[in-house]
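Reopening this ticket.

The earlier resolution said the output was attached, but the attachment link was broken on my side. Pasting everything inline this time so it's all in one place.
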Amino acid sequence: MNFPLSSESASAPVSVQLVDCWNKIGIWGDQGCAKLETAIHCRNCAVYSAAASQLLDADIPADYLQRWTKHFAKAKSTNTGQTRTLFLFRIGVEWLALSPVVLQEITTQKPVHSVPHRRNNVLLGVVNIG
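Inline output:
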């Protein structure tokens, strides 16, 4: 596989020749690779690791710094629309919303344990979430 490291460059892109067997016979291909029996997944295979090392060790394009400087120097586009992120939930028939900044954790529903001598609709019980 010919993997270009520079897609927006005016100069010739630096290319790395990869053996991308994971896309053909590996986990994302027809899964016919004999190494899958021992490796379970391509990310555990030496060929996959070698390809990653090859990409990380490749030379960067000559205009790399200029392209990213130009990219980050652009003015940030701001959305003029009034939008707000909310966590929407329901308690009984009431729909409520909270700002995500006030939340610390969202967890799955847990069983409610009744409190002795407190059998009414005000307090159903306590829930262990941690």
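Reporter confirms the inline version is readable. The radius of gyration is 27 Å. Residues 5-12 have pLDDT under 50 and may be disordered.
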